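Batch manifest, entry 17 of 40.
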Amino acid sequence: MELRYICVKIICQRGTGRNLSGELFKNRSVIRLSLFKRIPIFHMCCFLARKFCLADGVVCWQQFQRAVCANSNSQVNTLKSATILRLVSGLPLTIKPKKLILNLLKGATEPVATQVFVKACGLFNISENSTRVGLARLASEDLIETVERGFYRLGPNASVLADELFHWRFMEEKLCNWDESWIAVYLGNLGRRDKTSLRRRERVLKLNGFGELEQGMVVRPNNIIGGVGYVRDRMYKLGLETEAIVFQLAELDQATLCKAKTLWDVKSLNSNYQNSIDSMEAWMKKSKADPEIAARESFLLGDQALHDLAYDPLLPKELVDVALRKKFLKTMIHYDEVGKTIWHNLYQSCKLPS
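Output type: structure tokens
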């Protein structure tokens, strides 16, 4: 009872931002109480997950499981490692098989076998049946295609975005100095009734770092090499309607200029750069004795970091801490190499003998 009381007290006093060992959780969302039905066990899990936290939300499942069993008479078989990891780190509670399959194919240099997807999805408690259903649905949407029986690669509908995301390592190289002009897109002539088109449009604009200046008009700093022409072609290629008018905007009045500069949450961007750096560096220092745990953890942290890079607005130094962003990118490149090695070894262990 004492353990549960301490846990409740710690959760209620989370404003201190510290766990039992005194380590900062760096603004992570530690627990979502409403998502768990077994509240007494849940409080204990909060306590123990913090106690065995390896780095900013990364939990050693083996230590955690032993500790829970030692401190409780109740069964906790429903508490899976990936669930606990995501609860503590604030990452998504579920990994969809379609997303995991696409991410594996994006990083693959050769077609991937079905048994590899089954093994990888199993790390996140995704059943073999759900994995195969995911493969079938992706194939029907032309997001993946079969090369030979049981082997897959990215399909035509996924290749364009994959090619764009492949170049994340070189994102800083495509930037130039900012002259306080803007790349603008006028959207007032586009419809909003087609929800599929609207979602695609919003995703393309977000991928390119645009913020809404006025209703029907979005802007971003003109600090991309190639300027308006390059960004226009890129957005059309990614699916923006060609009816959207993309142009350069300059010599804004002072009030509008100040408004445009505040369209992005710069404080959150800088904080996220530092948090991601700390998380990845701490994880890379830890032991990777269990290959499956290492693969799971590397995917969860790496997937979030890649998402942040893909949707980074790439603001100029006048608006954001560019040096910190470059450090984030450098850390991610190193982290990616470590993760690729782990997943390559896992892939080799899944391959059928010749």
